[in-house]
Amino acid sequence: MKYTRVLLKLSGEALMGGQQYGIDPERLNDYAEEIAEASKHAQIAIVIGGGNIFRGLQGASKGMDRIQGDYMGMLATVINSMALQSTLQSKGVKTALLSGVFIDRIADSMSSAKAIKLLEEGNVVIIGGGSGNPFFTTDTASALRAVEVRADIILKGTRVDGIYTADPEKDPTATKFDHITYDEAYNKNLKVMDLTAFTLCKENNMPMYVFDMNTKGNLLKVLNGEEIGTLVTK
């Protein structure tokens, strides 16, 4: 394997599958199968967004307090994390759930030492609750957690096979990057991650690989070093 410890970032929207909101059981099961197989070959930590349930910014745009909205979004990520944990456990995968927000009946609080110990013991470690603070996205949380668990790389699973010059679902002339730097991605306004996440990755020399998570077998291919997406480096 090219990578021995990774942080897998999944969007909440990805869990919707063909639905308009919520969690599609079929998509959840597909992801769990991919992760279960990949966990036999590498240590995997996971951060999931909550956009399929609630986004703080959407609430704020409709007059809701931004801080309250962001905490609601963090709880949405915990719901997604619990769903993935349950599905993985049903497949016999050792799984631990940690959280950036204190929610002790459901998850242990996140700490670097705890997460690393659980990974070394063979657990898939799902980290919900974002960063535990308002005004930070789950992209930033994934960058933070990747640094905290000393991952080799962030694997950003999306529904497209990498980073393009424009949205390939809207622009048929968009071309794909095989490799790009964080500065180039930001300067080209490619919307891969927000600036805070970019800065965390760049300052800590944390690479990221963007790939299509919805194609069966792709997660294991990335772990093997197959070039099927886009590599982002310092």
What does this entry look like structurally?
By secondary structure, the chain is α/β, with parallel strands linked by helices. The protein has a single domain, classed as 3-Layer(aba) Sandwich (Carbamate kinase). Strand 1, helix 1 and strand 2 form a beta-alpha-beta unit. The chain is 37% helix and 20% strand. The mean pLDDT is 95.
Strand order across the biggest sheet? Answer: 4-3-5-2-1-6-10-11-9
- What global shape is seen? globular
CATH topology: Carbamate kinase
At the fourth level of CATH, the homologous superfamily is: Acetylglutamate kinase-like
Give the helices and strands as they follow along the chain: EHEHHEEHEHEEEEHHEHE
- Work out the helix count: 8
- Largest pleated sheet: 9 strands, mixed
Which architecture would the CATH scheme give at its second level? Answer: 3-Layer(aba) Sandwich
Structural class estimated from helices and strands: alpha/beta
Number of domains: 1
CATH class: Alpha Beta
List keywords for this structure.
single chain, 234 residues, alpha/beta, Carbamate kinase, nine-stranded mixed sheet, two-stranded antiparallel ribbon, 8 helices, 37% helix, globular
